[in-house]
């Protein structure tokens, strides 16, 4: 066989554009294999041998493209988040008041995890395994949600707005942990988020930002029972008659 023909068959001899398309196609197959495994069994189901078998891409090539299992999973989850979480997030806030829109944002966000429970497991484990959390999956999520939240509460005192968002963030992430540990169910989190936000919305800084139905009028004072007067002690009756 002429040397020129043999060279034409090697990847290095492919035109640069065709080589890049071929590499991009392999990378895409690998990432899709990771996501399929994660949906099926969560973080621990994503093993490199299983990814290689599912994608048809060799282990050496996967390592060359991504460097490690942790980086591979992070790349796949980031791609999934962009489509399922980041892109639709601006459409989640709905409602007549700022507080209702903020609650709607949290509900829309949580529904993503409820609909994809194994991806919640994968997201949390992948975020914990990252070597640069300041630019990792959790930071990327906050960079999307926080600006939307701040815009919703733009008319609230900045200091109190910061407090509300910090507290709700801690409650949200605590909910993630409790669900993953089996201590709460996914549907339990909606009520916790609403109850927490209702309490925070009672602050004077949130006046005009909450629905009227959420206004807290204080505990009801019970009316005296009619029998109360008849059960007074003789001494109390004597004082009343004197």
Q: How does this structure look, described?
A:
The relative contact order is 0.08. The chain is 65% helix and 0% strand. The model is unreliable at 1-11 (pLDDT under 50). Helix 5 runs parallel beside helix 8, helix 6 (98-115) crosses helix 7 (117-129) and helix 9 runs antiparallel to helix 10 (188-200). It has a single domain, classed as Tetracycline Repressor, domain 2 (Orthogonal Bundle). It has helices spanning 3-9, 16-41, 48-55, 59-66, 69-86, 98-115, 117-129, 137-152, 158-180, 188-200, 234-241. With 242 residues, the chain is mainly α.
Low-pLDDT sequence parts: 1-11
Radius of gyration: 29 Å
**Terminal Cα separation, in Å?**
128 Å
CATH architecture: Orthogonal Bundle
Helicity, in percent? Answer: 55-70%
Count of alpha/pi helices: 11
- What is the strand content? under 5%
> What is the N-to-C order of secondary-structure elements (H for helix, E for strand)?
HHHHHHHHHHH
Task: Characterize the biggest β-sheet.
Answer: none
